[in-house]
Design goal:
The structure holds two protein chains of two kinds.
Chain A (H helix, E strand, L loop, with lengths): L7 H29 L2 E2 L7 E2 L3 H8 L1 H31 L6 H13 L2 H11 L6 H8 L15 H26 L3 H9 L4 H12 L1 H16 L3 H6 L11 H11 L3 H25 L9
Chain B lengths: L1 H10 L11 H32 L4 H6 L12 H9 L2 H32 L5 H11 L8 H10 L6 H26 L3 H8 L4 H12 L1 H17 L2 H6 L8 H12 L3 H36 L1
Helix pairs in contact in B: 2-14, 4-14, 5-6, 5-8, 5-11, 5-13, 6-8, 8-11, 8-14, 9-10, 11-14, 13-14
The chains are: A mainly alpha, B mainly alpha.
């Protein structure tokens, strides 16, 4: 009877097109990226095999490690801001009026393209006419910063719109998870005389710890490969002050035509991202994970 | 995840007041919390209002007056200038058809795979599914140089084909993940009955399964649409001629030319984000549901 549902021809017809797409456009390229890393190549001419040279350069390249450090800084900031989102979600999910509307307002920046966000925030950070400095002037600040043009500030200035962009997304996830906590448990705790803080700390947080781990993973891995805003707003500048791994790779390959070295950086990014994925899942693993 | 939205709407009716002596203190506390939540909402939304304001202002107004001032004499001319003096119309059209085509392809291919993996029995199904799920973890930036080279040798650089293929491939993993959750909880009795009646697999898939999954398909379609509409790196890398640029890359170059004409820059940006905001206005529940589903399953 089940014969129809194990027809090999149909199975091939249904899975092969999608499978071919991800094999040729995702899996083969990552292998090629590692392979190109062994080449001296300008992207147009002949490739020359140079062995491990690119990878040795990469390990000794100060700029690469600086950009890696910047990527990790972003990862730390994003992860730390998760606590704020969690606090906001706890309040939102505690059956207050208007939580639906607020949640949607928070989400709006997430829906916009990185280019629109980047261009908007470049205007906000405009040293003379931007909203940021006009606000600071209203509060009486005299030496207003030049934001994206200041090497000491540029990177942190970009963190602000990145966090602004993703806040609503994480709040949405936490809110959904908190809404899945059964009402009976909360009611029972209330009857036993537990305060709102106790309920949040002792009941709700442990119950959504599984989701919290997922968001840590999303925030860290998302930060490590972050590119769009930085590329548009500063291009990694001024003078490398806001360079991250992906922007450094892009610059080497598509601006300086070092496709071989760029590939080596891209492969390094892949290895670091996968290693962090593994590390986080290892560190946050526990037997009593709650599955939703 | 579909229960999330129903629960959240039910939640508002459940606010049972607990009258205690602490209720005064509670009220103050609640007021304070509301203030923080409200402030956060202002931070999230005000930059966009400011954008809308300066898209209707003259430079004198932007430079001379407070960022909170309303446009005195709305400069709708900024919008006509933004729409007519560049290629915005072309970019806009490209964004629309590339997005629609990629979303359609992604959804049909993802449905095929999810159906084959969850409804049909074969030995390698676990491995194939695994390949799709692992692909989700791979940063697209690590693939971009080899992809550029592959498209280049296939003569697909500066062709929208490269964009549609890339969007489809990179959105398949997430789409399959969302579909999986739905297929796994969905009863198979109807399909099994159809098999008994001697239905062909194609008939079952197109006539029974696909129509039954329309709710989740629309959710994934919206999520895919937002991602594709906003995508930047692929177009920026693979497309060089103005004829095939999409809105994100187009406006990025276009805005750069203006430098100091704030009104025109603002109008261009507003034009690019209005479609998404309109979609959100009408489909916010679906979008919220899809965003939550995609992340939690991942």
């Amino acid at each position: 009877m089940k014969n129809v549902m194990s027809n090999k021809y149909v199975i091939a017809l249904y899975t092969l097109p999608a499978l071919l797409l991800i094999l040729t456009l995702i899996y083969i390229p990552i292998v090629l990226s590692g392979y190109y890393g062994f080449m001296d190549w300008d992207g147009i001419g002949e490739m020359t095999f140079i062995g491990l040279d690119n990878y040795i350069t990469l390990i000794q390249d100060k700029l690469f490690w600086t950009s890696t450090y910047h990527s990790f800084l972003l990862a730390i900031f994003s992860t730390a801001s998760l606590l704020l989102y969690l606090a906001i979600s706890l309040v939102l999910a505690s059956k207050i009026k208007g939580s639906d509307l607020l949640r949607k307002i928070y989400l709006i920046p997430m829906l916009l393209s990185s280019v629109a966000i980047a261009q908007l925030w470049m205007k906000i950070f405009d040293p003379t006419n931007g909203m940021a400095n006009k606000l600071l002037e209203m509060f009486g600040v005299e030496n207003t910063p030049i934001w994206l043009a200041d090497p000491d500030i540029a990177l942190y200035a970009i963190f602000i719109p990145v966090i602004w962009q993703f806040a609503g997304f994480y709040i949405l996830i936490y809110y959904a998870a908190l809404k899945n906590v059964p009402d009976e448990i909360i009611e029972a705790a209330k009857i036993d005389g537990a305060s709102s803080l106790q309920i949040a700390y002792k009941i709700k947080l442990p119950l959504i710890s599984g989701i919290f781990k997922v968001t840590i993973m999303l925030a860290v891995v998302g930060s490590l490969k972050y590119f769009d805003l930085i590329y548009v707003m500063t291009g990694g500048g001024p003078n490398g002050a806001s360079e991250v791994m992906a922007s450094y790779m892009y610059k080497e390959a598509f601006k300086l035509n070092n496709f071989g070295y760029g590939s080596a950086i891209g492969f390094g990014l892949l290895v670091i991202a996968l290693f962090m994925t593994w590390l986080i899942s290892k560190l946050t693993k526990s037997k009593d994970d709650v599955q939703f | 995840m579909s229960e999330v939205s129903t629960q959240s709407s039910a939640a508002t009716t459940l606010s049972a007041p607990h009258k205690t002596k602490k209720s005064y203190l509670n009220k103050i506390g609640f007021g304070f919390l509301y203030l923080i939540l409200g402030l956060f909402a202002v931070i999230q939304i005000y930059p966009l209002i400011w954008l809308l304001f300066f898209s209707l202002k003259t430079n004198q107004e932007v430079f001379g007056m407070s960022p909170f001032s309303l446009p005195q004499d709305p400069q709708w001319g900024n919008y006509t200038k933004a729409w007519t003096s560049g290629n915005i119309g072309v970019y806009f059209f490209n964004s629309v058809w590339i997005t629609v085509l990629s979303v359609a392809l992604t959804i049909i291919l993802a449905s095929f795979v999810t159906f084959a993996v969850t409804r049909m029995s074969w030995k390698l199904s676990g491995l194939v599914l695994g390949l799709f799920l692992v692909a989700y973890m791979i940063p697209l930036h690590s693939t971009i140089i080899p992809l550029f080279n592959m498209y280049n040798s296939a003569n697909l650089i500066d062709s929208p084909v490269s964009i549609v293929l890339s969007y489809t491939a990179f959105n398949l993993p997430l789409t399959i993940m969302i579909l999986l959750g739905f297929y796994r909880t969905f009863p198979r009795e109807i399909e099994e009955a159809a098999v008994m009646d001697g239905c062909s697999v194609h008939r079952i898939f197109f006539r029974i399964t696909l129509p039954m999954t329309v709710p989740v398909l629309s959710t994934t379609a919206i999520i895919n649409m937002i991602y594709n509409w906003n995508e930047f790196v692929f177009v920026n890398t693979f497309i060089s001629s103005d004829n095939w640029k999409t809105l994100t890359v187009g406006i990025n170059n276009f805005v750069g030319q203006y430098l100091t004409d704030w009104g025109a820059i603002g109008a261009t940006l507003v034009i690019s984000i209005v479609p998404i905001l309109l979609a959100f206005l009408f489909l916010s529940d679906k979008i919220v549901e899809g965003m939550a589903a995609g992340s939690v399953k991942g």
